[in-house]
Amino acid sequence: MKIAVCIKAVPETDTRIRIAADGRSIDRTDVKFIISPYDEFALEEAVRLKEAKGGQVIALSLGGDEVPNLLREALARGADEAVHIAAAGIAIDDPLCVGKTLAAALKGLTPDIVFFGKHGVGGDNQQVHAIVAEKLGWPQVTVVTKLEVGDGRLRAEREIEGGVEVVETGLPAVVGAQKGLNEPRYPKLQSIMQAKKKPLATKTFADFGLTAAEVGPEGAGLAVTALRLPPPRQAGRRIAGDPGQQAAELLSALQNEVKVI
Amino acid sequence: MANGVLVFAEQRDGAFKKATYEALSEGHRLAEKLGQPLSAVIIGSGIRHLANEAAHYGATTVYVADVAPLAKYSTDGYVKALTEAIQAAQPSVVLAAATAMGKDLAPRAAARLDIGLASDVVETHIENGALTVTRPVYAGKAFATVAFQRSPAFATLRPNVFPAASPDASRTAEVKPIGATIVDALQARVTDILAAAKGKIELTEASIIVSGGRGIKGPENYYLIQNLADALGGAAGASRAVVDAGWVDHSRQVGQTGKTVSPTLYIACGISGAIQHLAGMSSSKFIVAINKDPEAPIFKIADYGIVGDLFEVVPKLTEQVSAMRQN
Ligand SMILES: Cc1cc2nc3c(=O)[nH]c(=O)nc-3n(C[C@H](O)[C@H](O)[C@H](O)COP(=O)(O)OP(=O)(O)OC[C@H]3O[C@@H](n4cnc5c(N)ncnc54)[C@H](O)[C@@H]3O)c2cc1C
């Protein structure tokens, strides 16, 4: 099987976000990048599928200089090849442009299945994998917590409000991984060494026959006009007393001041 | 010329969801500000009766795709019906709720129309006759103002943020059937729906959430959190520490890699207040922290702080809430 997995470099989740001078993006000084947490489940599932069925795993990532290190990490975690799609010229924060670029890259690879994390932590759009599926004309299953891949078909469980939907579809298909799908492994030292010898190619959007008008700022669906930090929350009141008094005083505050109960 | 606001009015099992009323109400407010009509699209099978309800929330035209192949949700079938409605209505704005269905459907429909989609929007603004929206990024550590470069503007609305208006039963709408060409050849199909335990309220839809952290010490004590949530008519959540320990299911995790919630009241019990947890809940209207460590970071953002042992305070709260409810 040919298995593709798309990963995104995102700021570490404990990053304190600061706004850059342009007022529209984050200040990237000293920000450490990691593989978006949900993409770890996507990668692990891709590698497990290869281990079960044979084949190869190709990891793709669209982004800047932070990407090659993370692709090496993906190779250490079991991917066989990696492709870095350079961000230059692409509206990198626009889901439509990113989706179009990845779809074009994947089309040339002709995978049987493509894994994504259910959402890229940070941008929090939860859109790119659905856009890719649409542009390729393939079925999608998003927010997947359980997956079985059979002969040209898959059966997946996806999380919905208050339950789980069981979805069946043919391949090729796009799958969005949710936490719970698996337990990602940590790479062993030996795999980290081996990863250094695995192929890592760098491509640009033009290599996939795309133009700046399609995937550059002109082609974007959205424009971020401002980015701001939320007003800081103030610490409120401490409620003292024994547990019974604390409970009573809190309830009276919730009734009279907050009016929620 | 694009005109009007179109709302995807999500239904499950023949009934609108709470988030649907919110989306219809916000759609109506935007339509009035723009001086344009509101329309709605309802997709499913045996759901025609819901058209009246959409009218009560202000829709003057309701597109109804009521055909057997759409009885269960499928991305493919629903995208076809939704894009057909968008093409028929030619709206300037399309809205859907950012629910499990909305998040699966909207980006695919937007991609088919080659337009932008703003996800999980928490504020809308009309400036010079055009819509701009505000949406949280970095799980609420920052907020982006977003303009639309293509038409229609398309947004999914975060549940529990936009108020639902009161319906007016005297309003009526013109009903337009669509979806006639959707035959039973859908790419992916839902073969089954496994319901979680009955009666549990979904975190993202709850107006009160009680969450437990590592301070609960073990899975056998989670009932303390659940009982208080039940007494308050809310939902029970958890920190990642509790989920990773396997004490509760991941669907309850609140935070940057779990659910982002904005209830009216969030009660954090035995949760230290790590930045990833705060990212998921700090847009709650009121926050209560119960923690035995007076220095716990959660107190910095709590409106009401109780320094104490959750094993003593939480049962007292449950007891007093239950007593109050009985009176
Ligand atoms: C990539 C990444 C993503 C993450 N995403 C999330 C996320 O989505 N959500 C999330 O929650 N975390 C997330 N985390 C984890 C986060 O960093 C913290 O580790 C976690 O939130 C801690 O959970 P906790 O507050 O329950 O536990 P702890 O930090 O161990 O805190 C337990 C608290 O309980 C108090 N306590 C103990 N006993 C009692 C008692 N008897 N009565 C009252 N109080 C008591 C203690 O004083 C302490 O403050 C993430 C971490 C990483 C690296």
Task: List the main descriptive attributes of the protein structure presented here.
heterodimer, A: 261 residues, alpha/beta, Rossmann fold, 9-stranded mixed sheet, two-stranded antiparallel sheet, 7 helices, 13 strands, 30% helix, 28% strand, globular, B: 327 residues, 2 domains, 7-stranded parallel sheet, 5-stranded parallel sheet, 8 helices, elongated, binds flavin-adenine dinucleotide
Number of helices of chain B: 8
CATH class (first level) name of chain A: Alpha Beta
Low-confidence stretches of chain A: none
Q: What is the CA-CA span between the terminal residues of chain A? A: 56 Å
Low-pLDDT windows of residues of chain B: none
- Fraction of residues in H or I helices of chain A: 25-40%
Describe this structure in words.
Chain A is of the alpha/beta class. Chain A has one domain: HUPs (Rossmann fold). Chain A contains seven helices and 13 strands. In chain A, the strands form two sheets. Chain A has a nine-stranded mixed sheet, sandwiched between helices. In chain A, strand 4 (56-63), helix 2 (67-76) and strand 5 form a beta-alpha-beta unit. In chain A, helix 2 (67-76) packs across helix 5 (189-195) and helix 3 packs across helix 4. Chain A is globular and about 65 Å long. Chain A starts with a strand and ends with a helix. Chain B has 327 residues and is of the alpha/beta class. Chain B has two domains: 5-177, Rossmann fold (3-Layer(aba) Sandwich), CATH 3.40.50; 203-326, Rossmann fold. Chain B has helices at 18-34, 50-56, 75-89, 100-113, 222-232, 240-244, 275-281, 310-326; strands at 5-8, 11-12, 15-16, 38-44, 61-66, 93-97, 118-121, 123-127, 130-137, 142-148, 153-157, 174-177, 188-195, 208-212, 235-238, 265-269, 286-291, 304-307. In chain B, the strands form four sheets. A seven-stranded parallel sheet of chain B has the order 7-11-6-1-4-5-12, sandwiched between helices. In chain B, strands 15-14-16-17-18 form a five-stranded parallel sheet. A three-stranded antiparallel sheet of chain B has the order 8-9-10, with helices on one face. In chain B, helix 3 packs across helix 4 (100-113). At the A-B interface, helix 3, helix 4, strand 7, strand 8 and strand 9 of A face helix 3, helix 4, strand 7, strand 9 and strand 10 of B. Bound molecules: flavin-adenine dinucleotide (FAD). The site of flavin-adenine dinucleotide has 28 residues of chain B, from helix 6, helix 7, strand 17 and helix 8.
